[in-house]
What does this fold into?
Amino acid sequence: MKCVPLPSRLLSVEMYSEFCGTAGHATVNPTYDYCGYKAATMPRYEPYTTTVVGAHSVPRWYEALDRLVTLGQLSAADFTDAQFRATQAAILEQEAAGIDVITGGEMHRRTHNRHAPPNAMLNHFWQRIPAFHNENRPRPISTHDPNVFHPAAVCRGPIDDTTDLGLVDEFRMVSSFARKPVKITMTGPHLLAVVAYDEHYNNMQRMIADLGKLLHQNFWRLAEAGCKHIQIDEPYYTVADDAEVRAGVDAINTAIEGLPEDVHVTAHICQGNYAVGADYDGQIGHRYFDTGRYKADLVCQIECDAFLIEHDMTPHYEHLLGNRQLGVGAVDVQAPNIETGQLVADRIAAHKWLTPQQTIITSSCGFNHLPRHIVLGKLRAMTEAKAILRGITG
It folds into this structure.
């Protein structure tokens, strides 16, 4: 079987005993690569740990409140208060469902579910980076529907790596209410760059690289604030060419380079979420970005601890995963029904090559477009699947 190079951020075997004897570090476990010998140590989740991708159900009344702010009948502070309360609800529902590693639901990053600003993955962060101007231009984002556009910011200057993206404030706010470990999610450098309009760099690889440096500084601030769980989201790799993806991978490796070994770094790789119905700009009804080559070979060059993926993409990672963990998105956010715990467990157990020690249970993408009661049911199904699978494996 093929041996996979180990991420450089992981500890060597020689450092293992010294590391385990150092007070103050999180517990780590020895792991083995596919060649059968002890290879490295890393922060690992327990078998079948459950976690979400990030976004929680966005209330339909968000958009109504946003209109009232525009009309002057509510203040911006009123909407901020509503987002704060929605964040508290997202935390509560994840914990009530038994999810192990939670987020704040990204509730403060949205005012609606449309592509229009402030889009949670893009405009929310572009607005914080001085190099990106507030002017937005339409950018087609999917060959599936030519009528779907994203309002893309325009980069007109160098990206300063000292910009505060607000991740530490988010971590502290969510942690003040959470009883479970808190994960902070962040849009990856590739998506932030390729959807924007570039009027400064005229070189996509350089722009992506500078965004990686910006993330690096913000991730270090997170680590210093006590955050142990960081996730980077990249949904556009399948559409992009190999050179762009390599630049994106290099930028992520820059972003996470040198982070403390007890910080668990996850890369969420998907092919876009879908949105249908009167509340959304487009009527795609399936993944936005599923045209092109699925580049698991390049993805696995990211020096992270785990990947979170769509469950039907799992076979791509066999022989490439090495000793990392894989979050199988066995809860399908593109299905409006609630899966049973058994169905979720069956979807995971179907990948017989994936060991329990390497398996994380998650969803295929964010839950933002689904009704709250559906999301809560899907979260509970993840917890039920964990119990089923742990029973199967003893």
